[in-house]
Amino acid sequence: PHSQRPDHDDKDRQLDGFRAAPESDALTTDQGVRVDDTDNALRAGARGPTLLEDFHNREKLTHFDHERIPERVVHARGAGAYGHFEPYESLAEYTCADFLQEPGRRTPVFVRFSTVQGPRGSADTVRDVRGFATKFYTREGNYDLVGNNFPVFFIQDAIKFPDFVHAVKMEPHNEMPTGASAHDTFWDFCSLQPESTHMLMWLMSDRAIPRSFRMMQGFGVHTFRFVNAAGRGTFVKFHWKPLLGVNSLVWDEAQIAAGRDPDFNRRDLWEAIEAGNYPEYELGVQLVAEEDEDAFEFDLLDATKIIPEEQVPVQPIGRMVLDRNPQNFFAETEQVAFHTANVVPGIDFTNDPLLQGRNFSYLDTQLIRLGGPNFSQLPVNRPIADVNTNHRDGYGQQVIQQGNSYFPNSLSGGCPAHAGAGEASGVFRHYQQPVAGEKVRVRSESFKDHYSQATLFWNSMSDWEKAHIVEAFRFELGKVGSDEVRERMVANLANVHGDLSGAVAAGLGLPAPQAAATIHSFSSPALSQENLGGDGGI
Ligand code: HEM
C-alpha cells in the first residue's frame, strides 16, 4: 500500500535518522552487550533463588516497570498521522508566515485526533468533542493549530478550565462514568454556567459522534491574528473542511460501535491510510480587518461565539493530505506535544482570555507529562528548522552543547546571539497592539450574551437534526439523578428556544419551562474592507 506514497518529505527524512536500524537482529542489553538467554533468570541452582548479579534480568524488569507515562489530563485518547499541507495561493497580503507564501509548496505535518473526556483506553464513538491538532513543521519553526471539531468552547476564561474538566471527567470517588457525558457533575456545572449553552447545542448534535476522523471539520476556535511583512494585523479564524464531507453516526450506531469495536475511529483512520485512501482537508480562513474589531454583536475575543459565515465567508487557502501512519504509537502519537503558543512569524494571538490561558497550560502540562524540559528534542516534536538555543541541561538532554550558553558573550563563538534590530525577515516579533487598563477581575460586558448563537444553531437545524438534539438532551439528562439540576438545565434551554425546552421537558416528565424573554437576532455589520469578506479567493 505504501507504493502510492509521495516522496519523503523533510520530516520523513529527518525521522529516518531516529529509526532503529540494528546491524544484526541479535538481542543486546541497553549497553550493547549480546545476551545469551532472555527466558531464564540467573539463579543459584535450577530451583534456587534468583541472583541480583543478573544485570540483564534487572534491566529488563526495570525498563518494563517504567514504560508508562501519565496520560494527557484531557484528550488522552487519540490517533495520529503524518502528511503535508500546501497553500493554493500566496497569503503574503495578510501574513508573512513562510509556509503560506508560495502556492503548492509542501510543509510536512503531524495531526492528532482525539476525544476529550475519556482516558486512554476508552471507546472512540462516545458523545464528546473531538480534538483536531495539527503540527506544521515549517522552515521557520513549528506552528501548532490546536483545534477541535466544534467552532466554540464551553467556557470563556481559561481560569474556569480546571472546574470544567473536574466536572466533565470521571467522578473522584468511583471513577465513573467513562464515555458519554451523562452524569450529574457535568450537567450541574453546565446548568449553572450559561456561557456553556452554545457549546452544549453542538455537543448534543450529531457532530459529537463523527462517523470518521476523515469526515469531521476542525476549527482553531479562537480569533487569531495574521501579521504581514509590514506589521499590519488581520483577525483570522481557521476552519478545516474534510474532502469526504461531514458525516456522523446516529446514537444507536455509536453505542453499538463502542461495544463491538472501541477502536472504531482509530481503525478507520489507520486502514484508510494503509489502503492509500488518504484523508484530505481544506483549510479555510475568515478574515476580519483590525478596524472591524467592534463591528459585531458579539465579541471576537469570546470563544463561545462563531463569526456567522453569512457575515464573513470562509475562504479556502490550502489543502492537507494525511498519507503516512506512525511507526510507533508511543514514540509519535503519545509523545507529540502540541501547544497553542507554538507560533511562527506572521501568526500571532489575540486577547481571548481562553487562548491566553492555553498559552500557559500546554507547556506546563507537557513538562510533567513528558518528563522535563527537553521534550522538543523527541523525534516527533523536533522542528525541521535549525534549533539553536541558550538553554542547557535538564532531564532527557540529548544535545551535546558546544561552548557557553549565555548572552551577551565575548568568549564563546558557539553561543547563539539574537537576530538584532535590523533583521526583519524570519524573526518572530510580537504584534504591537497598544494595551491599557486597570487590573480587574471582571468579564467584559461584551461577553454577556450566552443564548443568541445557541438559538442561531437551533434555527439552522433541519427537523431531523432537531429531533436528534432533543433525543440527546433527553437521554443525557435522563441519567441525571438530581431533579434540581434537570429542571435548571431545561429552564436554561428555554432561553434557546421554547420548542427545544418544551420537547426536552416533556421527555423528562417535567413541566414546560418559561419561554425565553428575548431572542437576539443577528444583523450584518458594515465591514470596512469588502475584500476580507468577499466571495473571491485570496
Ligand atoms: C489538550 C484543544 C482549551 C488545556 C488538547 C488537545 C486539543 C485541545 C486538540 C489535544 C492535543 C493532542 O492531541 O496532543 C483545545 C481547544 C480548546 C482547549 C480547541 C478551547 C478552545 C483548553 C484550555 C486549557 C487546555 C482552556 C487550559 C487552560 C489542555 C491540556 C491538554 C490539552 C493541559 C493536554 C496537553 C498534553 O498533555 O499534551 N486541547 N483545548 N485546553 N488541552 Fe486543550
Structure description:
One of its GO terms (molecular function) is catalase activity. Keywords: Heme, Hydrogen peroxide, Iron, Metal-binding, Oxidoreductase, Peroxidase. It comes from Streptantibioticus rubrisoli. This protein has about 550 residues and is an alpha+beta fold. Helix content is about 25%, strand content about 15%. It has helices at about 10-15, 55-65, 160-170, 185-190, 195-205, 250-260, 265-275, 330-335, 355-370, 450-460, 465-480, 485-495, 500-510, 530-535; strands spanning about 80-85, 105-115, 130-140, 140-150, 220, 225, 235-240, 280-290, 315-325, 345-350. Strand 3 (about 130-140) and strand 4 form a beta hairpin. The chain is globular and about 80 Å long. Bound molecules: protoporphyrin IX containing FE. Protoporphyrin IX containing FE binds near residues 146, 337 and 365.
Q: What's the short story on this structure?
A:
The protein has 538 residues and is α+β, with helices and mostly antiparallel strands.
The level of helicity is 25-40%
Average pLDDT across residues? 92
**DSSP summary, beta strand count:** 10
The ligands bound in this entry are: protoporphyrin IX containing FE
Poorly predicted spans: 517-525, 533-538
Task: Give the tags.
peroxidase; 10 strands; disordered C terminus; alpha+beta; globular; 25% helix; 10-stranded antiparallel β-sheet; 538 residues; binds protoporphyrin IX containing FE
Topology of helices and strands:
Layout: H1 10-16, H2 55-65, E1 78-87, E2 107-115, E3 130-138, E4 141-148, H3 161-168, H4 184-191, H5 197-203, E5 218-219, E6 224-227, E7 233-242, H6 251-260, H7 264-274, E8 280-289, E9 315-324, H8 329-334, E10 347-348, H9 353-369, H10 452-459, H11 463-478, H12 483-494, H13 498-508, H14 530-533
Antiparallel strand pairs: 1-2, 1-9, 2-3, 3-4, 5-7, 6-7, 6-10, 7-8, 8-9
Helix pairs in contact: 3-4, 4-12, 5-10, 11-13, 12-13
Bound molecules: protoporphyrin IX containing FE.
Protoporphyrin IX containing FE (HEM) binds at residues 72-75, 78, 112, 114, 131, 133, 146-148, 153, 158, 161, 221, 303, 336-338, 354, 357-358, 361-362, 365-366, 369.
